[in-house]
Amino acid sequence: MGSEPIPAIEVVRRADVSREAASGATDGQIVYAIGDVHGCYELLVRLLAAIADDAKGVSRAGAGQRQPLLLFAGDYVDRGPQSDKVLSTLVWLARHSPFDLVLLKGNHEAMMLDFIERPFHAKGWLRVGGATTLASYGIALPEGEQAVADRCERIRDELMDRLPASHLDLLRALKTSATRGDYLFVHAGARPGLPLNRQDERDFLWIRDDFLENSQPFEKIIVHGHSWTSSTPVLAQHRIGIDTGAYRTGALTAVRLGTPTIEFLQARQVQPPA
């Protein structure tokens, strides 16, 4: 893994989806919300550098009276090749970032934690990206579904031997939602027709079609990851979708809120993944 070439990455602003913010106060705090990382460490590093530069410019312009908030919408692990490095980066940020930091839980972190607690019952995680997370920690799965099923507990035990305690502590401390002013941040979305204070946390992690197909506003604008169709983020009246399929499209996206315009920053591979 260490000998793999680092992909060429560029940072771009998505002016095609930027627009005047009709509403969306953030209680005087600039917010940078990052979509699903999914093990794409190199993209994450470039995007964080771009956010740091952007925040300096915003500060010089006099916008925001508080320290900016850096918020992650979940799904740090699985599918991409370097989940271990992504979690190490989050641990470092939790200790050293000059920004306020909020880390939300995604459904993939929920599955990983479930596998740690109940390896046989949660072995489905291995088929939806968990195998690449294990590989990032140097763990290879046996060939064949039956062999995997027979060795689930051994696989979990090997993961626990190799998983740094700081990574596990971080995973267990993840939040399911956060609020800033007129915005609610969750991983997946919210259940239409229910007040936000009565939502099921499972919907915050897993909901898809019922939320995406809803056209009615909630009490707050929902900023979410979890669902993507292309490398272009979604900006609608009632939701902002910031998952752009980084592991497949090569584009990792952040949205900046709390300034006169909503703007998107992307770190993307010059040559997208095959």
UniProtKB/TrEMBL annotation:
Highest taxon listed in the record's lineage: Bacteria
Matching PROSITE patterns: SER_THR_PHOSPHATASE
InterPro entries, per database record: Ap4A_hydrolase, Calcineurin-like_PHP, Metallo-depent_PP-like, Ser/Thr-sp_prot-phosphatase
Keywords: Hydrolase
Pfam families hit by this protein: Metallophos (PF00149)
EC number(s) recorded for this UniProt protein: 3.1.-.-
Gene Ontology terms for molecular function: hydrolase activity
Annotated ranges, domain Serine/threonine specific protein phosphatases: 104-109
Identification of the protein by name: Metallophosphoesterase family protein
Organism encoding this protein: Sphingomonas aurea
